[in-house]
Amino acid sequence: MASSQIPVPGNAAEAPLHLGRLSLRELSMESLLQTIADLVAGALPGNLETSVTLLVKDAPSTVPFTGRLALSLDESQYERGHGPCLHAARTGEATQIADTLTDDRWPDYARPAAERGNRSSLSVPLVIDEDDRIFGALNLYSRKPEAFDEDARVAAMAFGPYAAVAAGNVYAYQTARSMADNLQAALETRAAIEQAKGILMERHKMTPDHAFRLLAVASMNANRKLRHVAEDLVLTGELPFVVPGGDRRRSPRSRSLSRPDSELPEDS
Question: Which residue of 27, 135, 252, 267 is surrounded by the most CB atoms within 10 Å?
Fold first, then answer.
């Protein structure tokens, strides 16, 4: 994901506070994490490339990144199943490589990283939603060895709690919105089906169970969702049916309701 081109605070101390002033309702998870990556890259010295690893049920992905090097280094770790960013996300421990030429913890990752131009890195863990097993890591990559002294580590670590809380709030908000949308859709589906059942019960003096089974048969025969069949009945007064040979047509009211009871599903 390309840089969001947000205004970057003038120093590292101000950058985490900038996260607290963001309107989380206006941000998606992706745009928030991109903001975090941009803030870190702009606030810390050394012309760093940054990224955020998102670990959802142990499946990693890079949501934002500020340069192609950061993205390629993340993906190299995902392919191998290990590396500093995955270690930070999985263990909750800040993970630093002082020099990729000498680090011996992940040699199959570190040596190729050095060949690509990365000499040191720092990954800060993010706990976004522990119950849903959503973790992450804020990754900083430098082309210089030993680029992260104590001041740089303290500044980078300061982003962790802010970034994790902000991302967690966005995730919780989006989850709540999704649940509300699903509930609304379920209520609308139920309302349409109840209306359709009422029409059939009134018109043909049948029981609620019989009316529902008739809707179910029409849904199966037309290969359409039950809700859509019910909505059509409410709007048009007709049910779809399938004639021999699979030709779907709109049936007259009387013909659509003349199917024998033997074709209706049994009551559960």
Answer: 135
